[in-house]
Amino acid sequence: MMFAAPWLLLALAGLPVLWWLLRVSPPAPRTQVFPAVRLLVGLPSTEETPARTPWWLLALRLLAAGLVIVGLAQPVLQAGGALAGSGLVLLVVDDGWAAATDWPRRMAAADAVLDRAARAGRAVALLTTAPDGDGAAPKLTPAMPASAMRARLAALRPQPWPVDRAAAGAALRAAKAGGARPDAAVFYLADGLADAAWDAFAAALAGMGAVTVLRDAVAPARLLLAPVAAADGFAVTLAQVPEPVAATVGVLAQTGDGRTLARVELTVPAGAATGTAQLDLPAELRNRLSRLALEGPASAGGVALLDEGFRRRPVGLLAGDATNAEAPLTGPLYYVKRALGPYAELREGDLRGLLARELSVLVLADRVVPDGPERALLSAWVEHGGLLLRFAGPATAEHPDGLLPVPLTGGDRQLGGAMSWTQPAGLAAFPPGLFAGLSVPADVRVNRQVLAAPGAQLAGQTWASLADGTPLVTQAARGAGRIVLFHVTANADWSDLPLSGLFVDMLRRVVAQAVGVAGADAAARLAPVESLDGFGQLGAPPPAAQALTGAELAAMPVGPRHPPGLYGPESGRRALNLANRLALPVAAPALAGAEEAPMGSALREQALAPWLLALALGLLAVDLLLALRLRGLLWAAGLAVLLAAGPVQAQQAGGQPALATRLAYVLSGDADSDGRAQAGLLGLSDYVNRRTNADLADPVGVALGEGDLAVYPLLYWRVGAESAGLSAAAVAALNGFMAHGGIVLIDTAAGGAATGFSSGPDANLQRVTAGLAVPPLAPLTSQHVLARSFFLLQDFPGRYTGDVVWVQRDQDRSNDSVSPVIIGGNDWASAWAVDAQGRNPYATLPGGARQRVLAYRFGVNLVMYALTGNYKGDQVHVPAILERLGQ
Amino acid sequence: MEQSSQRARRAEALGARLPPLQVAAARVAATVWQGVHGRRRAGVGEGVWQFRPYLAGDEARRIDWRKSARADGLIVRETEWEAAQTVCLWRDGSPSMHWRSKAAAEEKGARADLLLLALAALLLRGGERVRLLGSAQVFSGAGGLERMAAALPGLAAEDGLPAPAAPVPRHGRVVLIGDFLAPSEAIAASVGRLAALPTTGHLLQVLDPAELVLPYHGRVRFTGLEQEVPTLVRRVDGLRGAYAARLAAQQQHLATIAAGVGWGYGLHQTDHAPETALLALYLALSGERAGR
User: Taking CB atoms and an 8 Å limit, are B222 and A37 in contact across chains?
Assistant: First the structure.
C-alpha cells in the first residue's frame, strides 16, 4: 500500500486535539416540553452531572475524522512497481480487428499503465499500430502528461482492419532518428498475431527501451471466413491461431434486424488453423439472412456479411418450342417451373430479353442456339459466371450446338420399346459431385436419351449416370460459369425423371450452385454504404472510404480506404468482408528480451480513498442520528422528513378533481347562494349514491375561467336578480364546456314567486347569459329523455313547482343529442339541500314530502342524463325495433 | 374497491356529525349512572307528590282520570315541586392542557372535555340545567348534550382560569376542571370571586402522570407551552424530590383554597379511568345538594 498524498497523514497528529475538544464540549441538552415548567424554575440542583460526551460517541467521531484524513491521503492498494527506464513511457497498442474481443480489458490495462506513469510523473506517448479511419499511417503521438493522454485513450476504438506493423515499425524508427532516447519504458498491448513485418517491428520496439508485453491468452483472435454457398445452406469456415485444444464456437445466422434464425456449432480441431461447419437452412429463410456472426465477444473478425449474391438467383426459362412450352403435363417447361417455382425467381422471355437483365441460371429446354450473335451473347454470359442448364430433346439430338458440356454422338438412344431388346434403364447411385448424397428412387426409368461421345474427361464431368453407366447429367466449367446438361427432356417424354421428387432436389442443387446475380456487373463503381466498426456493428463508413468496382471488390484487401461493409445501391448490394484477402492468423513469437505480463496484473491496483471516505460519511451519518437521539429530536427529524413528503400528497388529493366523478356549481360570490348550492349538490350526491350505481364524490364550487371544467359532468349555476355578468374568460370556459358535452343547469331560483311581479331574475338571466352559445330552447316535456333517464317523471319540481323548464329544442347528433343547457326557476338546490344533521333546511312550496321526493328524482334523472347521455332515449325505440325484427 | 372505500369515507363523515367525544362522554356517564342508580335515585323524577280532590280552577289536564274513575269525584294528581338547579361547568382550554406524556393515552385537555361532557350528561339526565361558564346558553333536556358538545369547542382558550366577567347565577353550582398549575394567588382570587356570588362548587385538577413523577433523566431543557422561560436542568434525577415537594405544596394550596370557600377539591390523573373521577365528582355534587 502506498499513498498518493502522504503529507496529508500529518493531520493525524491533530486527532488528540480533536479528542480533547470533543471531550470538553458537552452534547446539547435534550429538549422536553413540560407544562409544569413553572414549578421547576429555581429548584436547587442537588448534584452536578458530568456533562461529558460518552466515550463511544467520542470514538466514533475520532474514527470518522481519521478515515477522512487517511482517505484524503489517497492510499492505493498493491500499486505497481517502479517503471523501467527513466524517460518517456511509450504505450504501443494493437488496435486492429483482433484486439476487439477483449478491448475493455486492454483499455483497463492501458489505464493502469497511465496510472503508474502519472504517479511517477513521467510523460506518455502513444502509438497505435492500425491505420486510423482517415487512412493515416500509424504515428507516434507527442509526449504528454498521463492526464492528457487519458482522454485520447478513452477515444480509442479498435479498427475493423488489420494492424500495419510495417508502418508502425517505421514510425518508431523515425522517432528514434528524430532524437528519442532509448530509455523509455515501453508497454506493448499485443493482439498476439504476427505478420510479415513482425521482426522489423520487434526490433524497432526493442530499440526504444525496456519492453513489457501485456497480453492475454484467454481469447484468441478468430476470423470468420466468407461462407461458401452449398445446396442447402452455407459451409461456414472459421480461422484462428492453432491451439492445442479443440475449440467449439457457435455461429449465428442473423437477419438484418438482428434476429437469429439459426445457430450451428463449429469445432476447430486441436492444432488446426480452420474449422468448418455446415449451416442448413431452407431457401426462404436463407434469403432473409444478412450476416453470420460468432457468438461471444463482438469483433469485426467474427462477422461475415452476406450480400445479394447469397440470396437472389433469378432463373431464366427458354423452351425450343415456345408455343406449347406451358402445356399442362406435356410442355417442356411445365415440370421445371413447378420444381423451381418455390425456390427461385423465374423469368421468361426471349434470349436477348432474359440476358439483358441480371440472371443467375438460364434453363434451355431442347433449345438449340445456332451460331450467331445469340450464341456469342450466351457464351459471354456463361464466361462471366452464368450457369446454363440445358435439357436434351429431339432438336438437340438432331443438331447439337457448341454450348454443350460434352460432345454428343449424333441422334439419340432408345431404351426399350417394341423394336428394342433393351429395357428402360434406372439410375445408378450418384457419383461424388453435386448430387452426391441424394437417394435414388427405384421407379425412375429413362426411355430415351442423348449420348455423350466417350472421352477421357467424361467420367469427371458426369454428375449422374444410368445404371449401365451412360451419363445422364454432365457438366463443364466455362470461364467463371458452368454448363449443365440433362441428357433427357424436361418433360416426361423421354424419362420419368421430371415426375419424381428427385428432379426437384437435383434442380435445387444446380441452382444453389449458381453464382448470385450480384456478381454479374463487374465494372460499375460501388459506393460504400455502411461499414463495420471494430466491434462488428454496421455504421457510417469512415471518411477515407472509397468506392470500388465489383471486380475489385472480389480481390480487395480491407483497409481504411476499403473498410469491410456493404457497397453499392440498394438493389445490388455487395459485401466486402474482412476475411476477403486476409491471410490466416498466425501466432506472434515472443519478443526477444521483452518482459511478458498478463494484462490482468495491472488491474489489481486499487485506490482505497473512495471507500474510506464513504465509510467516514456513513459514520458521520450515524453520529448525526445518535446526536439527534441524545437530544430527543430523532422523532422530530423523522416528522420533518414525513412533512416534507406530506404536502405533496395533500396537494395531489386536493388539486386533482379528475380522480373522482363529482358535481360542481358555479361560485357566485354570494355566500348564501353558494351555501345552498353546496348543500343541495351534497344532498343530491348522497341521494344518487344511495339510489343508483353512480358514485359521486363531494361536490365542489368552481370559479368560471379558472381551472378545467371538463372533469365535471354537470355544472349547477344559480343566477339571481343581482348576479354579476360574466368575464370573457368565463364565457369562453362555459361555451367550451357546453360544446364538448358538458351540461349546465341554470337555476333562477325564482320559480312561481316572482312571476308576474318582478321580472328581475329572468331579465338578469338574459343579461348574464348574453355571451353564451345557448341553442334554441323548448319546454321540457315528459317525452324528453330527461324525464325518463332513471325515474319516469311528469313534472320537475324543486323547492317550487310549476315553472317551465327549458331544454335544447333541436337534436344535435354531434353532442349525442344531449341538451348542453337546462334552464329553470324551481330552485332545485334548496330542495335537495341537507344540513350537517342530515335534515332538509328549506321547506318546499307548496310543500309535502312528495314534492321533495320528486325533486330528488329529477336530480337523479339529471345526473343520469349527464352521465349516460341519451342512452335511455335509444330505449324508447326498442318496441319499434323488436317489431321490425319480428317481421 | 374504489366505490366501497368512498362509501366508507362518506359513512365516516356522517358519523362525524355525532362526535366521538360525545359518544365517549355518554358511555362514561352511563357507567356512572348505573353505579349511582343502585344506591339512591338522585335527581328529581316525575314522582307523584299527592292526590287531592278537584277544585274549581284546576287545569283539566291535571285530572288523573284513572284515579277518578275509581273514586266518586274527580281526583287531581299533584307532582313533586321540582326546582331544577343550574350547574356551571368550566374546563381549562389553555395550551398547557394540550399535552400528554408517553405514559398517558390522551391529552389533559381531551380528558377534561370528556369529564365535562360526561358530567353534563349525568346532570341532564337528572333534569338539571347545565351551562358553560363563559357562555350564556343554557342546556337542558335530551338534546342538550348534543348542543353542548357542539358549543364546547367554541369556548375561548383562556389563560388557565375562568374569565372574571363570566356570568354565573347566584347560588348556582360551579365545577372547574383544569390543571391549576398557575400561581396559587391567582387561583385563590378567581375561586374567591366565584364563591362570593355566592356559589358552591368543586375543583378537579387533571394532571398527566409525568407531571406527578417527572420521569426524565440527565440533562434536559424544559420548555413550557404558554411562553414560559425555558429552564435548563443539569440533572433531572437530582431534582425529582424537590419537584414532588413543590407540586404537593401546590395541591395543598388548592385544597386549602377550596376548603376556605366550602368547595370540594379532587385530583385526576389522565392514566386513570375517567369513571372514577366522574363518580366522585357527581357524588360530591349530589352530596352538596342532599346536604342542603
Answer: yes
- A386-414 burial string, b = 16+ CB within 10 Å, else e? bbbbbbbbbebbeebbebbbbebeeebbe
For chain A, domains (ranges, CATH) are 222-296 (no CATH), 315-515 (3.40.50.880), 525-576 (no CATH), 663-876 (3.40.50.12140)
Q: Under an 8 Å CB criterion, which residues of B touch A? A: 2-3, 6-7, 10, 14, 17, 96-97, 99, 108, 179, 181, 183, 208, 210-211, 216, 218-226, 228-235, 238-239, 241-243, 246-247, 250
Q: Given this model, what pLDDT does residue A761 score?
A: 67
* CB neighbour list of residue A48: distance below 8 Å, 6 or more residues apart: B234, B235
Q: How far is B252 from chain A (nearest CA, A)?
A: 14
- Across the interface, of B219, B233, B241, the residue whose CB is closest to A40 is B233
Per-residue pLDDT tens over the stretch A504-548: 888 888 887 776 655 445 567 888 888 888 888 888 888 888 888
Per residue, the 3-state secondary structure of A487-514, as one string, reads CCCCCCCCECHHHCHHHHHHHHHHHHHC
Q: What digits encode the pLDDT tens for the residues A135-191?
A: 788 888 888 888 888 888 888 889 888 888 888 888 888 888 887 777 888 888 888
A111: its cell numbers: 489505464
In the predicted model, what is the mean pLDDT of residues A241-269?
A: 87
Q: Nearest-5° angle of CA B184, CA B187, CA B191?
A: 140
Q: According to CATH, what is the number of the domain B86-291? A: 3.40.50
- CB of A314 within 8 A of CB of A357? yes
Residue in chain A lying closest to B238 (CA): A46
CA-nearest residue to A41 within chain B is B231
Residue of B nearest to A49 (CA): B235
Dihedral pair phi/psi, residue B170, rounded to 5°: -65, 145
A323 at interface of B, judged by CB pairs closer than 8 A: no
Domain boundaries, chain B: 48-79, 86-291
pLDDT tens digits, A391-408: 988 888 888 888 888 888
Mean pLDDT of all residues in chain A? 82
Say whether A44 and B242 touch across the interface (CB within 8 A): yes
Contact by Cβ (8 Å): B163, B269: no
> Rounded to an integer, what distance in angstroms lies between the CA atom of residue A129 and that of residue A142?
15
d(CA A175, CA A194): 23
Nearest C-alpha of chain B: how many angstroms from A617? Answer: 28
Q: Which residue of B has its CA nearest to A835?
A: B17
Nearest-10 crossing angle of helices B274-291, B108-125: 40
Contacts of B162 (CB under 8 A, 6+ apart): B90, B133, B134, B176, B190, B194
Calculate ∠ Cα A873-A875-A878, nearest 5°.
135
- Count chain A–chain B contacts defined by CB atoms under 8 A: 106
Residue A177 to residues A85, A165, A171, A362, A438, Cα–Cα distance (Å)? 19, 18, 10, 64, 67
| Residues of chain A positioned with their CB less than 8 A from the CB of B147 | none
A33 and B3: CB-CB below 8 Å? Answer: no
- Cell 510523460 belongs to residue: A123
The whole-number average pLDDT for the span A221-240 is 80
Residue among A27, A35, A686 minimizing CB distance to B224 = A35
Nearest to B150 by CA among B22, B24, B25: B22
Distance from CA of B222 to the nearest CA of A (A): 5
Query: Rounded CA gap, A390 and A402, in Å?
Result: 12
pTM, 2 dp:
0.43
When pLDDT is averaged across residues B160-172 and rounded to a whole number, the result is 73
Residues 6+ positions from A738 with CB-CB distance below 8 Å = A744, A772, A773, A820, A821
Asked if A199 has any chain B CB less than 8 Å from its own CB, the reply is no
Interface check A46 vs B, CB under 8 A: yes
Q: How far is A696 from chain B (nearest CA, A)?
A: 9
